[in-house]
Amino acid sequence: MKPVFEKPFTQQEAISEAVIERIGDILRSGRLHRYNVVEGEEAEATLLEREYAAWQGTKYCLACTSGGYALQLAMRATGLQQGDAVLANAYTLAPVPGAIHAAGGQPVFVEINDDWRINTDDLAAKAESSGAKFLMLSHMRGHIADMETISAICQKHSITMIEDCAHTMGATWNGIRSGNFGTVAAFSTQTYKHINSGEGGLFTTDDPYVAARAIVMSGSYMLYGSHGAAPNTEIFDEIKLVSPNMSGRMDNMRAALIRGQLAGLDENVSRWNSRYQALERTVATSPKIFTAKRPQQEHYVGSSFQFRPKLAPDLFPTLLENCGKRGVDIKWFGAAEPKAFTSRYDSWKYLGEQPRLPKTLDVLSTTCDIRVPLTFNEDDCTLIGEIIVDEVKALYT
């Protein structure tokens, strides 16, 4: 009898009793809205902004409804105009092009490498040819590219870099936190991210004008002074009447959920990585499966795992079915139609016809992806790896 894995891939750890108690206090108060406070009280969202800015090492932070909203806000607050070209790596998830489209930009997709990172040669060429003044850099599935090279390309062409850090909260490159290379960073606290508030987003920057515009655009009305990590009021005096209100505030319950988990995030990064490494070691025993070598400069967060079986694309539905029967839930980026959270740049028809990116399509045709929740332990991850290796091997015999 072949071993079967029996834990769900979508189950997250329980929220702590202390956080549940704090949520109860907020509910009993009735003051869920971030600007609904009594004299002498600071809202949970205000406290979160101050604490997250300190943890991230940035001057300013805004708590908002989602990571995708933070991406839209980043483009608007940095001056994106209708029709502006936005460079973006072609391997990402649908909220990224969706945010570019919603903000009025036109994505110019950039090829990726075998290791799923943005191809810096193609980035440099398209920075030159497109005239784009914005780069939406998605650290997709936690893979951080060569940030020194990317920063140099942006500096050479006067490109504003916005970092999508939905999968890299807590990661670093050469000791610098992911998100601290660009003008703005956007983080997600959706359930499957590194902090779980169901939905939620965080926007960070060191630019006072960008921060002020984002705060007003998020729906602060004239209550911007109550934000926990905001510029001085003189900055707001310059921008408050020329920045539209596009309500996307975070409520106090979500802020409390995030605050209660932030203190344990660094420890959880280590826990994720021990699980990731157990899975990686096992899968790497197969010569028929490609796994990416993590760069020495990268301190990653292993909350998901990607691999590329050396199989013909038409065998992947069988591989997914056979692994599924043994309890291993694999997402595949090579399917003709999007499924669940998985799609490709050529799936987003609302963007119009896009130039073909042969390298990206080749890589994604064999790219598999699995979640690594903290409800798994290292033995679980070893078993998952053994099942994957076994089922890939079976398709060769």
Q: N- to C-terminal separation?
A: 19 Å
What number of domains? 2
Shape: globular
The total strand number stands at: 14
Class from secondary-structure proportions: alpha/beta
Q: Spell the H/E element sequence.
A: HHEHEHEHEHEEEEEHHHHEEEHEHEH
CATH architecture of the largest domain: 3-Layer(aba) Sandwich
Q: Can you tell me the CATH class of the largest domain? A: Alpha Beta
Query: How can the largest sheet be summarized?
Result: 7 strands, mixed
CATH fold descriptor of the largest domain: Aspartate Aminotransferase, domain 2
Helical fraction equals 25-40%
Strand numbers in spatial order across the main sheet: 1-9-8-5-4-2-3
Gyration radius from CA atoms, angstroms? 21 Å
User: Which whole number gives the mean pLDDT?
Assistant: 97
Percentage of β-strand residues: 5-15%
Low-confidence stretches: none
Number of helices: 13
CATH superfamily placement of the largest domain? Type I PLP-dependent aspartate aminotransferase-like (Major domain)
In terms of topology, how is this protein built?
Elements: H1 17-29, H2 44-56, E1 60-64, H3 67-77, E2 85-89, H4 95-102, E3 106-110, H5 120-130, E4 134-138, H6 147-156, E5 160-164, E6 172-173, E7 176-177, E8 184-188, E9 201-205, H7 208-217, H8 233-239, H9 252-262, H10 265-283, E10 289-290, E11 298-299, E12 304-309, H11 316-325, E13 331-332, H12 358-364, E14 368-371, H13 378-394
Parallel strand pairs: 2-3, 2-4, 4-5, 5-8
Antiparallel strand pairs: 1-9, 6-7, 6-11, 8-9, 10-12, 12-14, 13-14
Helix pairs in contact: 1-9, 2-9, 3-4, 3-7, 5-6, 10-13
